[in-house]
Amino acid sequence: MSSVPIFHDIGKGSSLLSLCPDLKKFASTDGGEYGCSCFWCGGTTRFRVWPLKDRYWCRQCGRRGDSIQLLRDLHGLTFKQACERLGLSPRLRAVPRAVDPHQHAMHAARAAFFAWQDEQAALLHSRHRALDEERRVAELMYRLTRKFPHLFTTDEHAFWTRTLASLYDRLTTIETHIDLLVDTEELHERFTWWREEEVQ
Predict the structure, then answer these.
(1) Residues 71 and 123 in one domain
(2) Among 24, 43, 73, 109, which residue is least crowded by beta carbons within 10 Å?
(3) 92, 109, 133 — which closes off a domain?
């Protein structure tokens, strides 16, 4: 679990950007989407924040709410106390609007994207580990053919040279895919564009 931040400088105008430390920007959609480790379950980057909408959601443990709810859950404050810490008047708190079907569909698309992202990341990391084990064996054999050339034929030396080069290429490709999967801004925008066309 992440350590609970102590908010000494909360005041009027404070937002989820100031309440959540170590935020990293993941996308520009919805006025900006940020992520960090969840305060409750510790899921790395799965705690997502939309400052413009004053909303947060952990896609691992399901915690969600606004800046007021964050203070209430983390520090046991009442609704009134949390509003006072943020310099807000409880009477002025906005009433939630009715759910927009299109927005609901887009949030469903985002959740589907995150689920797909986790699944693909697990597959890529698993494949990377397996290929890295093959690379270790191939590198050992390649070094043996270089150190003891009289024990191996020319064809065997050529085989392990080609195999090692191929494994390095495949590992580099997987690492590139993992980097793309982690840096989600462009991938996320492509995915949500496709889902947006689908729900219209």
Answers:
(1) no
(2) 24
(3) 92
